[in-house]
Amino acid sequence: MHEVKGAKIEERKGVYEPAEDTLLAAEILLRNINGDRLEVAETGTGTGTLGIIAALDKRVSHVTLSDISEEALECAKENAGLNGVEGKCTFIKSDLFDKIKGNFDIIIFNPPYLPDDDEVKSGKNWWSGGPTGIEITKLFIEQAAAHLNNNGIIIIVESSLAESKNLHDFIDANGLMIVDSEKVHIFFEDIVALALKRKG
Description:
The chain has 200 residues and is an alpha/beta fold. 30% of the residues lie in helices and 32% in strands.
């Protein structure tokens, strides 16, 4: 068992485990929980770590955790129970926002963000974000923007190995702006967590 920002997390084989990118996203999340009775969604929840960290905050009233993997959702459910927040959580099997309804104050996604076309095609690597590393993130941003409440934030993670400039241009073109960031350098890359808000 690991503890991440106060959340007790059990891992499961085949489910992405919390790592440096998770910690960065958690830092951004905790800095940007503002207001009361907040509705939060975590897409691609995996172990449920980020959604559970949100659910542990008294200002958050409900968290929707979704993943395309049944195994991940079962792991997330168990971890929510371990932390006593299962009553604040809903678990949905969904490919991004396909099965998600409603709007949210905070939307979190730690996406596959490395460029690796072959692995995406084979489905072998959960790190693979397409040929440029940002294809899945761009699709998420398009969908998430339609589910974001006014003054809400979107939290994503990116890598310096992917086409960051292209992604930032895409964020801007979709009426969003970067309002907060956290970065760590690991071996040969920078991993960056970003908070996005609507312009204006």
